[in-house]
Amino acid sequence: MLETFASGFLVFAYIATALFQVALVLGAPLGEYAFGGQRTGKLPVGFRLASAASAAVLLAIAGHYLAQLGIFSPLLDEVGNAVANWVFAGFAALSAIANNVTRSQKEKRLWGGTTIAMLLAAVIVAL
User: Going residue by residue through the chain (127 aa), what tens digit of pLDDT does each one get?
Assistant: First the structure.
């Protein structure tokens, strides 16, 4: 039951994060909340392209967890799924580190706690 809750939380969190990235792609003036807070306002084209790639990756990860919940058909066998879960836990760890050591206080306040919760949920699913 805890694993199901954690998977559901990760689906929600990754989709919400992907939507934030899509907002950046579309020109939302939220630059100080992403990419280390290097840019304020609307991001330049290079950063917006990076946001588009990030959104695609985040949606793919959400799809993996939707398969964990039985909503999508799994693409991986049991061993592959276990490996993917640990890879995504590692990805969540890197995200948590990056968002909690950033110099941007706005980015840290927005993403710091969220990425730690995502890391804990990813580890629960991987175990």
Answer: 999 999 999 999 999 999 999 999 999 999 999 998 888 899 999 999 999 999 999 999 999 999 999 999 999 999 999 999 999 999 999 999 999 999 889 999 999 999 999 999 999 999 9
Give the 3-state secondary structure of residue 48. helix
Query: CB under 8 Å to 7, separation ≥6 — which residues?
Result: 65, 68, 69, 121, 125
Q: Where are the domains of the chain?
A: 2-126
Residues 6+ apart with CB under 8 A from 50: 35
Q: What is the DSSP letter of 104?
A: -
Place of tokens 């890197």: 94
Residue in the block written with tokens 């175990």? 127
Distances (CA, A) of 82 to 27, 54, 91: 37, 23, 14
**Residue with the two structure tokens 């934030």:** 20
